[in-house]
Amino acid sequence: MFGLAAGTIGVISSLPQSLKIRKSGSSAGVSRLTWLIMFVSGSFWLGYGIKTHSLSQEVSNAVALILISTVLIGIFGSSVTKAVVLIVAFAGFVFIATALPLTALAIVLLLFASTRIPQVIASYRRYISGGPSAVSMHTWALSTLSGLIWLIYAVLAGRGVVELSALSGITFGIAIMYFERSDRGLTEPE
Q1: Smallest Cα–Cα separation from 31: which of 140, 138, 132, 135?
Q2: Would the pTM count as exceeding 0.90?
């Protein structure tokens, strides 16, 4: 139950960022590297779900990858070539993830726990410079909430790699929200 709840919230967390980029026509302040790493990481988490027979991991990561792709298309622009590259990359990463021994896959997933660091840095730089930002606070709030629920799931299921990844995501999500929210004022609409 917790896995499906966390997965559902995690899946929709990318939607506000995709919509904000599309609506504003800008991806200023949005870390390209973070979203690329999240795409690769999500592919490996899908592979982890397949290897561990975790339906919540499989479904949530498959759908999340579609929404992450919409953010990447918003950042890099859309074309058939870019879409084909994303599909081929996705298939390759999932294949690699499912081919790795579970211990090696767990190590790779722990390395991916730092996927949000580039966005923390970009948000901090924007905070210092006072420049514009197209970063969606809703995305990071939902992502952090999803991390909290994944943490509960991981503790109950005894999945250490998920625990560590969730803790990392929660910590970095809070940092991003702090730097993005610090000068916006509490009543400013997103």
Answers
A1: 135
A2: no
